Amino acid sequence: MNNLRNELAQYIEQGVIPPYQYSYPPRSTYRPLDEGAWDAREVWARDLSNHQVPELNLYLHVPFCRYKCGFCNLYTVISTDQELYDAYTDALCTQIRDHAEVIQARRLRTVYIGGGTPSLLGTRHFEKIFDTLGSVYPNWRSTVEEVAVEATPDSIVADPEGFGRLLQLGLTRANIGIQSLVPQEIREAGRGQAGEDTIRRAVGIAHERGLPDLSTDLIMGFAGQTPESWRHSVDELAKLAPTTVSTYFLTVRPDAWFSRTGSYQYMWKPELYERYDYAREVFTAHGYVQEGSVRYKKPGRGGYVQKVLTFHGVPLLGLGVGARSYTSVLDYMTGSVKPSLTEVAQYIDQAKAHTLRPTTGFVLTPEERARKRLVLDTFDLDLAELDRSGLDAITDEVAAVLDAAESNGLVHRVGPGRIQLTPKGFKYRDVLSWMFYSGRVKDLDREYYEGLHEVNARARRNMGTPVRITGITGARETA
Question: Which keywords belong to this entry (predicted)?
């Protein structure tokens, strides 16, 4: 117990910065599934039996972008081909219809269209997607609490009328990637098309059109970012008054372009926690409340409903190439896991032929289901809920971690079985979350990243760029 307490205290003292924990197990732990061993309908039928109140989050992935950010490791491809957009939309709608039974058997809580840059699609594409959803779940606009889409500032500025049409179709939240309000930082990150003026115009359009929830983000650790430039971005964004703000530590994963080339010298040091402190101070002073370790919202207006519900254990059905589905049985992807236009074409063909199957994923045991909630949901968690999903197998281990967290001031105990993060716990939530990882998940994560690092290291050694290990997982960065 003392060792665990001291270990956690040491991580905090050293200012260790793990990657943001937004899923468990992470994608790095997914492995190929035996061919034909898993059928999506069977997975979802088994998942249904594990929930007393059947609910569902729906995620639709649109992989297309005009340009690729250097730090991005998401499933994206560069294309502005309208014929491809048409074919992809048709395939996505086919997938929605193929999952009608899954959707109809649950209360649909959220719809999130992510990417990529979904706002590159035209009005006709969104109308078709929403009409298809209506054919499967007729009253979705009245039952769904959040309809969200990801967008870049330049895509909104380029088509404000199209953005307004999205609001008429039921859009309640848009995630606009800002990252920084310092032009040089934006350019060096590969976002030169989204300059400060474009960002301000996009925010203005969202406000003028009456978007209920404008969600924006800032990133700590860009190359050349200083405490002064960070304060500028925070102060200016607070003035723009979006309803939701997220502040992330920059993590350049080994499968991102910056990491593969070693050409981007970003910051990942303990001093970044001082930038976290500044952002929290400013946004709370402007009337925001902290919803998560990275997110602030205007009470009654802002927030990220799908993420909160997913953390609480509500399953997520992911459709589209590269999308992940989270269930209580299996977390999985269908089709390709490596982005390319060839793979997108294969997805379209498979969707049309109704042959998409889970191809890679992670099988969840009762113990791993309990760990998922512990990793993601320590903001406010009733341990009694986990007794039904495998907590008994790891009771002593969990108790030791929680005791260490409490002694380091990271959690409150609220009643006999409820735990909540303290303000300090919000700050170091990702450090605490990592301590709930199972040995198997840690091993799979390490194996995956070591494989990528080996490839990248060979390339960087040829260029004379050294590699150093950081953090408490397999993540590394160039020196």
Answer: Iron, Iron-sulfur, Metal-binding, S-adenosyl-L-methionine
The CATH topology of domain 27-311 is: pyruvate-formate lyase- activating enzyme (3.80.30)
| Structure-model confidence comparison of residues 25 and 385, the more confident one | 25
Is residue 223 packed enough to be buried (19+ CB in 10 Å), middle (13-18) or exposed (0-12)? Answer: middle
Cα(181)–Cα(194) distance, rounded to whole angstroms?
A: 10
Give me the half-sphere count of Cα atoms (radius 13 Å) on the Cβ side of residue 479. 10
Q: Kindly state the average pLDDT of the residues 294-317.
A: 95
Q: Phi then psi for 339, rounded to 5 degrees?
A: -65, 130
**How far is 442 from 297, CA to CA, in rounded Å?**
32
- End-to-end Cα separation, the chain, in angstroms: 35
Question: CA dist 39 to 320, 322, 370, Å?
Answer: 17, 17, 24
Domain ranges of the chain: 2-14+366-434, 27-311, 443-479
Q: Confirm or reject CATH 1.10.10 for domain 2-14+366-434, answering yes or no.
A: yes
* pLDDT at residue 35, rounded to an integer: 83
DSSP H or E stretch at residue 325: strand 324-325
DSSP calls for 192-238: TTS-HHHHHHHHHHHHHTT-SEEEEEEEE--TT--HHHHHHHHHHHH
Higher pLDDT, residue 466 or 352: 352
State pLDDT tens for residues 213-223. 999 999 998 88
User: What is the DSSP secondary structure assignment for residue 6, as one 8-state letter?
Assistant: H
| Mean pLDDT score of the chain | 89
Q: Is residue 109 a contact partner of residue 314, using CB atoms and an 8 Å limit?
A: yes
